[in-house]
Write a structure and sequence with these properties.
It contains no helices and 18 strands. It has strands spanning 10-15, 21-27, 33-40, 46-52, 55-61, 68-76, 78-84, 90-97, 103-110, 117-122, 132-137, 145-152, 155-162, 168-174, 177-181, 187-189, 195-197, 201-204. The N and C termini lie far apart (42 Å).
Length: 206
């Protein structure tokens, strides 16, 4: 007998000036939903990343009244990070697990106006050979790039991509450590596609 799945609804609340409650909205797909990330764009729109039965789902809400503008399925797995740029485009990184128990990472650029996926990449830089997992995602930079940090084939990997095209700009592999977090204060670029990684938040293998 199939168990009845409970809808784990997200209650998104926003506060107006003087700490006055503005609105509360229930967001979900009708599946077993779990909210993972909430970000706001420069225009004030609210974007929510949901894990819906091992599928990555995004929702966009109107800032004034919380009205749901769209809900879009963008890939398989569970959301690992969500970022929004000044134009309202969204980067969502996710991890999925195959039948053999291996983790696989992916990242998608999503049009914030429509919820359509503009491009998607699997693995963290290059070709995924064994298994990969996203741990952190940098902000979208003014030079049109972003960096994924995680593990691939048992090593820490930092891969920088072109935001608009989804093409790989540079990649650094660091054996014997794991990425714990990313901060853009550790990144510099010459504007010609060359990036350098300075003091990274890394930790030795446990």
């Amino acid at each position: 007998m199939r168990a009845t799945l409970c809808l784990l609804a997200l209650l998104v609340a926003t506060l107006a000036h003087a700490d006055l409650h503005a609105w509360t909205r229930r967001v979900g797909t009708g599946a077993e939903d779990e909210a993972r990330f909430v970000v706001t764009s420069a225009s004030g729109h609210v974007f929510v990343a949901l894990s819906s039965d091992r599928r990555v789902t995004l929702a966009k809400l109107e800032p004034r009244n919380g009205r749901v503008l769209w809900i879009s399925y963008v890939g398989n797995g569970d959301p690992a990070a969500l970022k929004v740029d000044s134009n309202g485009s969204l980067l969502v990184a996710s991890n999925s697990v195959d039948q053999a128990g291996k983790s696989h990472a992916s990242v998608q650029l999503v049009d914030g106006r429509s919820g359509a996926v503009r491009w998607g990449q699997h693995g963290i830089g290059g070709i995924e050979i064994d298994a990969s997992k996203v741990v952190a995602l940098s902000d979208l930079r003014p030079d049109g790039s972003f960096t994924i940090g995680g593990t691939q084939d048992g090593e820490a990997v930092l891969a920088t991509y072109d935001t608009q095209l989804g093409t790989l700009r540079s990649q650094v592999t660091v054996p014997g450590v794991r990425v714990t977090s990313l901060s853009d204060k550790f990144f510099t670029s010459d504007g010609l596609g060359q990036s350098w990684f300075g003091m990274l938040n890394l930790a030795g293998r446990p």
